[in-house]
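Priority: medium. Attachment 1 of 2:
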């Protein structure tokens, strides 16, 4: 039933009108609930805060209220999404930002350098530590992404320091990369960052 909604290109894309057409099609094509009946019985809809959904004049929710003549429709910006955004804002001016920046620098260095990633994995094996890949932090579901990323970073902290030290000694790096590695090592050895 909902597989049809995922094929948004057949409705014109991902703008509010196309999204509305996709939602309407679920009821029209499958006959689960006749479209006029679904329009009359729907009392609430929720979504994340993207403007395509919540825009006051051209958003999906505004179109569902106005175009289908449903002045009673209650539209809600998803509570879980709002809590997550509030948590992200609360952490944006704290020392947590420094840890996030450290993690992002390490993540992109490993993503762009298979050698560094391999060095960290080998260091973890030598130190008898579990080795993990570093997940990205961006995207929705901010809290679980950060929790998983930071817990993996903490678990591999000694292996990362050892690998960064070794890579500076045994490998040649571009000056920019070498500077990033030296900066990372300073931060990794900082007690306040670790705390």
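Attachment 2 of 2:
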């Amino acid at each position: 039933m909902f597989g049809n909604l995922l094929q948004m290109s057949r409705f014109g894309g991902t703008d509010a009108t196309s999204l509305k057409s996709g939602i309407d099609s679920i009821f029209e094509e499958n006959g689960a609930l006749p479209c006029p009946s679904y329009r009359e019985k729907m009392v609430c809809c929720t979504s994340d805060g993207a403007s395509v959904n919540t825009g006051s004049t051209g958003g999906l929710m505004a179109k569902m209220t106005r175009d289908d003549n449903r002045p009673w429709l209650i539209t809600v910006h998803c509570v879980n999404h709002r809590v997550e955004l509030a948590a992200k804002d609360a952490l944006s001016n704290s020392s947590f930002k420094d840890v996030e920046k450290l993690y992002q620098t390490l993540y992109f260095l490993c993503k762009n350098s298979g050698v560094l990633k391999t060095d960290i994995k080998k260091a973890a094996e030598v130190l008898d530590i579990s080795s993990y890949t570093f997940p990205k932090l961006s995207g929705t579901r901010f809290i679980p992404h950060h929790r998983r990323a930071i817990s993996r970073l903490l678990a591999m902290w000694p292996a990362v320091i050892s690998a960064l030290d070794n890579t500076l000694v045994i490998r040649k790096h571009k000056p920019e990369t070498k500077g990033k590695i030296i900066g990372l090592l300073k931060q990794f050895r900082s007690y306040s960052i670790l705390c």
